[in-house]
Design brief:
This protein has no helices and 11 strands. It is mainly beta.
């Protein structure tokens, strides 16, 4: 059983910063990709950023490029999302997810953490 636990969400003013963490618990775990997704109010879930677990290959959605940074600490089985210059449109529930094979979609998900950016 693999469990992903997010932390670090909260309320912040526009222009502020937050750092999200995603810790992986459970059996010996080896991910292919890990990613951060978000679901804004009334909208579909979208991929924000992802990182290849065994390399430093990253991807960012255009909406967050230059403001968000995804990183990982494989020794701690933890992934991070540093969010700077936050905008009200970044308000969403943020989820971390893991994909354990390139042949499968993301198959492990965290419970989500709320990020609210006030204007």
């Amino acid at each position: 059983q693999v469990q992903l636990v997010e932390s670090g969400g909260g309320l912040v003013q526009a222009g502020g910063s937050l750092r999200l963490s995603c810790a992986v618990f459970g059996r010996t775990f080896s991910a292919y990709n890990m990613g951060w997704f978000r679901r804004p109010p009334g909208m579909e879930r979208e991929l924000v950023a992802r990182v290849r677990w065994t390399s430093n290959i990253t991807y960012y959605a255009d909406s967050v490029k230059g403001r968000f940074t995804i990183s990982k600490d494989t020794t701690k089985n933890t992934m991070y999302l540093e969010m700077n210059s936050l905008k009200p449109e970044d308000t969403a529930v943020y989820y971390c997810a893991a994909q354990d094979s390139p042949l499968r979609d993301y198959n492990y998900w965290g419970q989500g953490t709320q990020v609210t950016v006030s204007s």
